[in-house]
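Thanks for the sequence, V.! I ran Fe2OG dioxygenase domain-containing protein right away. Repeating your input here for the record:
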Amino acid sequence: MTTNLNQDWPEPIVRVQSLSESGCSAVPSRYIKPPSDRPNVFSVASPSMNIPIIDIYGFALDQDDSLRQTILNQISDACRNWGFFQIINHGIRGELLDDVRRAWYDFFKLSVEMKQAYANNPKTYEGYGSRLGVQKGAILDWSDYFFLHYLPSHLKDHSKWPAIPDFIREMTEEYGEEVVKVGGKLLKLLSLNLGLQEGYLQNAFGGEEVGACLRVNYYPKCPQPELTLGLSSHSDPGGLTFLLPDDKVAGLQVRKDEKWITVKPAAHAIIVNVGDQVQVLSNAIYKSVEHRVIVNSDKERVSLAFFYNPKSDIPIEPAKALITQDRPALYPPMTFDEYRLFIRTRGPQGKSQVDALKSPR
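Predicted structure:
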């Protein structure tokens, strides 16, 4: 597979925030989605619908087996039927969640010149960015972002993280440490629900050598939100995603039964979703699900997406215990690095990437 990932972006980068703040009254053509991909009221689910909210505190209480089983059942149902759920009482301090989100909001309010010092390129994506794929002439999303590596530790470079506002590096470091702990706990629950040893998925991810990275998303105000998206429909390529959503402005939409559900975040909840690698490991018992982000004409949004991923060079394939005569292995082995390059070349493409990997039956 040939890519141009060692080169720069195929076109000059335009910061969406600068477009928004210029006072433009119309979305430039590069951001206008085809009619089939635009936000559409006719395909949106009832406002009362929401993804499951699961209180995971009780799982730590060894004395209450019935409560533990209830939590396992709730997570199993969410992974099989939704691909998304919110967790509350997850052990991460609410103050830390508020502070780290505010710090990143303040970063995006810095001058363009200050942010440009962290401008990224397609080779690693690390830094301040405004597009995801490297296809020339692609229709772009209405968002800017900051991407950084967290694990493995040799890829983590605090000097590439913003130094302003004060303590943003320290807060981001602490937040990453806490989310990694939650990721390890959830992989145990997912393994048990699949009938595997509780350490199976963690070991398949590389044991202590997992990968982790953070993408902080900034969605500026948009003059014509009905024509574009903050993030196009996609499933996440990695293992598990932990999203700290904006606590004031909704924007994440999840596809369920051919309708789009606008997620309503619970207070201090973390939104969890199954990535393509867990779909592969579970032989599609657990599903990664398409999701997208809508934008707003009078409100900006910030969210933090933390990706808990397999080690990059380990072949990922369905667990042998989940392969039967009636349900053969659906996917061939592929390392996460190989899969990630496949994704990064094209940008968000719904679920076509993981579906294209399915073995011939």
